[in-house]
Amino acid sequence: MILIRHELRQSARPLVIWTLSISLFVAVCVFIFPTIEGEMDVVGEMFSAMGAFSSAFGMDRISIGSFMGFYAVECGTILGLGGALFAALTGAAALSKEEQGHTAEFLLSHPIRRSRILSEKLTAVALLVLVLNLAVFGVSAVCILAAEKFVPWKELLLLHLANLLLHLELAALCFGLSAFLRRGSVGAGLGIAVILYFLNLLSNITEKADFLSWMTPFAFTDGADLLIEGRIDPARLLVGLGFAAAAVAAAYQKYGKKDIQ
Amino acid sequence: MKRAVELRHLTKYYGRARGIENLSLTVEEGEIFGFIGPNGAGKSTTIRALTGFIRPTAGSARVLGMDTASQMPQILAQVGYLPAESAFYPGMRVREILQLSAALRKKDCRAQARQLCERLELDPARRAEELSFGNRKKVSIICALQHQPRLLILDEPTSGLDPLMQREFFAILRERNAQGTTVFLSSHILSEVQRNCGRAAIIREGRLIACDSVQNLARTAGARRVAFHGRADLSDLDGVRDLQSDAAGCSFLFAGSINALMRRLSGGELEDLTVTEPDLEEIFLHYYKKEGEDR
User: Fold this and answer.
1) Is the ipTM of this complex over 0.85?
2) Under CATH, which number does the domain B3-217 receive?
3) Residues of chain B contacting residue A260, judged by C-beta atoms under 8 Å apart
């Protein structure tokens, strides 16, 4: 518990900054919609007929003329990508920052097993991701209630739950990577988040690249799929959980025997 | 007497690079033990193996009777470690760092921490990033001492401390040692090892080249510092090293035949003569001298 508290304190500032930034963008989108709602039918038709671009963002399957269609595409992208960057950066730095900042000697000179260090740091990363997602969900629900006078709870919960799972998986992947890194965690975290995001865009553009959707957790947060299917694709979710579990297992395996510099 | 540290054929390679090779030594409980060597000799590698930061390539290390390969948390509960360079988490105050260290040990160390802060003149309200190198060192010293460990492992402990603070630090060490704490002191400052340690080991290029009491090391080196005022012909005399001469006389380390030396000196014109034990620095140079560097 001591390390969890310590990690949460150390990450409090970036958590607040990322949460406020994502919440602000989501709130702006929510409040903008009523003012452009009248024009959105035309815009929606235009966006749905832009070929690969429309496919990439799922706009060929849902209309951004409806509030949830607009929310899933616009706010889903902001939350998905913004939260993914936060989760990736937090996960990738979790272990490597100790060696990079030369605090590993301080931490590891205390009577605490490396496996416990990993468990507490992993818990802290998961809590940070959870807090960000809950806060953005709360802000979003309040803003929707204020702007639309009605909250489509089922769709909203589904979208945010899928994004939470995406962020947790990404955090776990980067946490695994963190055990192998000594420095450069920022670049690695950003790189992984962006690559996985673009893999999903590619897989949406052409069926030939559909296999890529099995490699990226962004696939099961696709707003169009979630709204049409009304559920998270269980197969892709399971594959994602498998990747996350493998990354965490690799972190325990590596860090338990790693020479600390 | 129990052994505080026991290294058996300890070897560490970083890939192909040598860390330490076949290092064996023991430190008894209650000792203040010096570990001497220049930068890159393997002192820090040895310490990192003792504290569990690295895994040895071969051999074993036991600390306070426990195996570092399997009992590290139990070992670290009774060890205070002072790293050569002190680094702390950003944004934390000294008080918070000390509290974190105590909490990680599940101990209430507030009284000890307060007392040590007073003796080392460290303000616990200051932020770590505002501290000078010396003050950061003090924070590490208190982290190492506040839980009253059985064994202290100190890596270059006085770097950054001013002479008064160094004196206070060694006074604290001697008090702790009198209470039974073992001290493993790694340093390249030979005078502090000579003043404070009963025994010492000398490490060179990853290998142990001598380990004995500081007095015996001087004898083992077999050299004496000879100084005289006047003139004497020392040319081609075997065993002369570190010869320093001027118009008034000369001084040198001598490890050759005393009879041969006396014959040369009696053939000269001497005003006075002193023969003394060499200090640790001279012993160190003796062990580190390479062939062809005798004079």
Assistant:
1) no
2) 3.40.50.300
3) 48, 53-54
